[in-house]
From TrEMBL:
This is Proline iminopeptidase. Its main location: cytoplasm. It comes from Kineosporia succinea. Gene3D superfamilies: alpha/beta hydrolase (3.40.50.1820). SUPFAM superfamilies: alpha/beta-Hydrolases (SSF53474). The keyword Cytoplasm applies. Its EC number is 3.4.11.5. It is an enzyme of class 3 (hydrolase).
Length: 318
């Protein structure tokens, strides 16, 4: 299966300024004359890490990466309770993608995303199908409330002890509701002690459910406090608002991209995002192929290898 390509640096980078106080960092790497491909990171709030450049054949692809609003190298960061999140929605992100495409002079591109980035990739493709030549998704999500409520509430059935600790910050009367909404309220508290305690608790819960592997190590809980604040504030903002997809649900609009070839790569042991979402999308998408990695969860080396294989196969799409 596919191996990561050698590490490379961008040949160009810059800032997109949509006029609402945001500065969106972007970069391009690989072959300036190659097949354009857009990468959409997860989270929301994870940012486009440098290692992602190694997914793309540098001889064949002109890879475009950017940090979504409020995170990574984009500004302002969503790192404190006073930040304005009203201009940070899925519709804003879709407009940013189109603005970036136009700025770079790209007519059509392959779109790839992971986790939340797969939901955004599908929403973008459905809004602008004429701009998308192919889609590759990993750790597949569709932005449905049932998916995010499963993570914040439903997984109590699997991790009852850890969930009780996670929910303990929320008043007992609110624990039956959407905990992402309750946590968003905590993260909006003017007291930084309250917000950091909430961010830390959310990250510990993320580490609990993101892998079923025995003795899986911490990841989110080890992030610096600023990164914890950014990621948890954006995650709860999006999840508490149905990923801003209630009026344009991805699954119900798959007919808009039925003709576009796509690959969905998903881990069979992904408890955070169970396989049924990838399966439902595949069933509604005649142009898609579903690749199930039997020994992976919400990520892993096997998933990355299959992801690279899928991208390699899309290099020569017409």
């Amino acid at each position: 299966m596919g191996e990561r390509y050698p590490a490379i640096e961008p040949y160009e980078s810059g800032w997109l300024e949509p006029g609402d106080g945001q500065e969106i960092y972007w970069e391009t790497c690989g072959n300036p004359q190659g097949r354009p491909v857009l990468y959409l990171h997860g989270g929301p709030g994870s940012g486009a890490k440098p290692g992602i450049r190694q997914l793309f054949d540098p001889q064949a692809y002109q890879a475009v990466l950017f940090d979504q609003r409020g995170c990574g190298r984009s500004r302002p960061l969503a790192d404190h309770a006073g930040v304005d999140l009203s201009v940070n929605t899925t519709a804003h992100l879709i407009r940013d993608i189109e603005d970036l495409r136009a700025r770079l002079g790209i007519e059509r591109w392959v779109v790839t995303g992971v986790s939340w980035g797969s939901s955004l990739a599908l929403a973008y493709a459905q809004a602008h199908p004429e701009r998308v030549v192919g889609i590759v998704l990993a750790a597949v999500t569709a932005g449905r409330r049932r998916e995010t409520e499963w993570i914040s509430n439903g997984m109590r059935r699997i991790f009852p002890r850890e969930w009780e600790q996670f929910a303990s910050l929320v008043p007992a009367a609110e624990r039956a509701g959407d905990l992402s909404v309750a946590y968003a309220r905590l993260l909006a508290d003017p007291d930084p002690v309250v917000t950091q305690r909430a961010a830390s608790a959310w990250c510990i819960w993320e580490d609990t459910h993101v892998s079923l592997a025995p003795n899986a190590g911490a990841h989110y809980a080890l992030k610096p406090p600023v990164e914890q604040q950014v990621s948890t504030r954006l995650i709860t903002h999006y999840w508490g608002n149905g990923s801003f997809l209630d009026e344009t649900p991805v699954l119900e609009n798959m007919h808009r991209i039925a003709h576009i070839p796509g690959v969905l790569v998903h881990g069979r042991h992904d408890v955070s995002s169970p396989l049924d979402t990838a399966w439902d999308l595949h069933q509604a998408w005649p142009g898609s192929r579903l690749v199930v990695i039997g020994d992976e969860g919400h990520g892993g080396a096997g998933m990355t290898a299959a992801w690279i294989d899928a991208l390699d196969a899309f290099r020569d799409l017409s």
